[in-house]
Amino acid sequence: MDRLTEMEAFATVVDQGGFTDAAKKMGISKSAVSKHVSALEARLGARLLNRTTRRVSPTEIGLAYYDRARRVLNDAGEADALVTSMQTAPSGLLRISVATDFGVNLLSPVLGEFLQEFPEITVNMVLNNRYVELISEGFDMAIRVGELEDSSLRARKLTETSRRMIASPDYFAKFGRPERIDDLNDHKLLHYSNQSAGNVWKLTAPSGERRQVRSAGWLTVNDGQSLLHAATAGLGIAYLPSFLYADAMREGLVEEAMPDLPMETLGIYAIYPPGRFTQPKVRAFIDFLAKTFAEKGPDNW
User: Fold this and answer.
1) Are strands 49-51 and 200-204 parallel, antiparallel or unpaired?
2) Could you give the 3-state DSSP secondary structure of residue 173?
3) Which residues have CB under 8 Å from 247's CB, separation 6+?
4) Is residue 111 domain-shared with residue 235, that is, in the same domain?
């Protein structure tokens, strides 16, 4: 008998809790399921199931074998799905979690191009400023900016953006411009409340020394666009990625607070569930973003 069929019959009996339900699940007769499992036990020389008139349960050996068998069956299923997907166009609903600032400023403008290139894919983009649980909350992938938290999820770096301290010319005219990192303690700072480190700015001094600026701040919000508006209004100094302040800087609405400091960079990553097989719709979107970002260049992000 086919070894994979034997494994499938045994694993399905364990999953369904009996031969009758396993037979319905597999679409074959109960006697056929029993023959497959008996053949497997005979080949292995071990009893894998405890059978009583009321229930069927795996033996200790059977439970250990089940774990490995289920992995093999999952791998086989992924292999079949891979072949199928490579012969068909990516399709289906793609549910994405994206930080609000990034989604509004960078992702939304290029979504139309992606949908035109892959008309069989529909997109549900959820904008929020928290780290969602991809699998439990039903997301196919997420786009995250900055340092990644430790997790079992897979990540692919798409590009990076720079981050600078900025404020309006009016603010500098009124309060002066900080010359050293320590001078920031005497300034009005505008903070982003969703940072994992709290109201802490991690900066690099001209000497290369890593420094931290801790301040309660004059204003704390969970939206980068609001911080930019506060900075252009002269309320204080904000520490923002370039895709937020670039236009305002070109228009002269904001200036860099400490241009002599080394430029800080933030990675932009695609995050998706673990596994050897990546869904075609996910792979298509990640490849599209990587290509789009590479063509524009990091200076535009």
Assistant:
1) unpaired
2) helix
3) none
4) no
DSSP category for residue 206: T
- Give tens-digit pLDDT for 159-182: 988 899 999 999 999 999 999 999
Shared domain check, 175 and 237: yes
Q: How far apart are CA 32 and CA 28, in angstroms?
A: 7
Element (H, E) at 228: helix 224-232
16 and 63 in one domain? yes
The whole-angstrom separation of Cα 66 and Cα 70 is 6
**Residues in Cβ contact with 94 at an 8 Å cutoff, skipping those fewer than 6 apart:** 121, 122, 123, 124, 140, 141, 281, 282, 285
pLDDT digits (tens, 9 = 90+) for 222-247: 888 999 999 999 999 999 999 899 99
Q: Which two tokens stand for residue 223?
A: 């939206």
Task: Name the DSSP letter for residue 261.
Answer: S
What amino acid occupies position 34? Answer: S
| Interior angle at CA 146, CA 148 and CA 233, nearest 5 | 150
